[in-house]
Amino acid sequence: MMIIHLHLKTKGSDGISTEFGTSRDLDGTNDISYNITYNKPDTDVKKGIKKPFTEVIKANIGDAHAMGQRPITFLRQVVALCTYPNLLDSPSFPEDAKKRARRILQGCGGNSLGSYSASQGINCIREDVASYIERRDGGVPADPDNIYLTTGASDGIATILKILVSGGGKSRTGVMIPIPQYPLYSAVISELDAIQVNYYLDEENCWALDVNELRRSLNEAKTYCNPKVLCIINPGNPTGQVQNRKCIEDVIHFAWEEKLFLLADEVYQDNVYSEGCQFHSFKKILYEMGPEYYNNVELASFHSTSKGYMGECGYRGGYMEVLNLHPEIKGQLVKLLSVRLCPPVSGQAAMDIVVNPPVPGEESYSQFIKEKESVLNNLAKKAKLTEDMFNKVPGVHCNPLQGAMYAFPRIFIPSKAIEEAKAHKMAPDMFYCMKLLEETGICVVPGSGFGQREGSYHFRMTILPPVEKLKILLEKVKDFHIKFLEKYA
Asked: Is the pTM of this model over 0.70?
């Protein structure tokens, strides 16, 4: 038996792990936390206990390497060289990898990855991040002094929210987050005793972000808190949408108009699959809107080694770029970061390769591009496969998976099943996901863990399993859903 608490500070992995969080009523008063109990069918199978399946397929978390994705060779080479510098004399490693490793080691105290770095991160890596942002955004300037290396993107998001939350009662900071959301946000908001302010993405319009909905949410929230922060996840998790340029412009104008601090979670910026979709960074659009915006809108944007084509979750590498922060607040941010000394230096090295990969003319470029494109092309195929398969199932609807690495299909749950779920004191989609796990061995996450409109039901699953296993998974879900509808008709 394993209990997964969808609550702050209880993230863990043991056999079947999942993501977690809390949610709060719109009036800011009632925290709703989820205690999810899973019988560990994988352990039961290993013990020889008879089950209607031979393996558990863990489609509940975006952990690429755990799903069998191969590491990017160049990234691992550089980190290996940094970890054991004696390998710098080995002819088995290419010169471009050695060059990057030497540069990183020169930025480390004692030329060792085992030393503390500056709290903000190794200087040369922050310089590389700034150069990457400039290339990505077509020459928009980036200052290394505005770059902070972090323990994954999650650490940066939590740190920024920590310095922004203040006040009490109706003056307590409100944080606007999308629904559905990545549960890190509700968990941190709850931990900081801030006020969660929900705005709903438009499922009928491919999970689009509507500024009219932002305005509705903001105006309602002003009656019980002080909304100061607006969080955007682009590409979306769990919903997989990619915001278009006009949408981002509208959001920036809204933030400027209402004097909101923008948090742009852009960790899936490499994961864009649908034709006609393109990733636009909030930083780039902000600058293109002119000095009235880029000199005034406060923006923190985040990236990570964990997603993209790298999938290096375990290194816990990440960065944030913070713009237009008041100098005194910036000083407090540096102090806050100093408390945790520094992010993992091996993760910083991994982040450096994400932003400073091989370039044309270098020895490793051909292999690097081949590996990168293979991962992303494979993900694009799996995104389309998943969307198409789900939309063939009666009672299931899946929006186009434009980006990220998840599907968030809406499922029809008959009233008879809803009543049985209530009898078990479960959310209906939790009941559905438990039945799916018990009968097929497929582990997914109920939509109620991410938030959803009242009366709608979803689940989130990753598209990371290998194609053949993903096909098996989707066929099993289809068969299960049809039987589920028949049973509870």
From this structure: yes
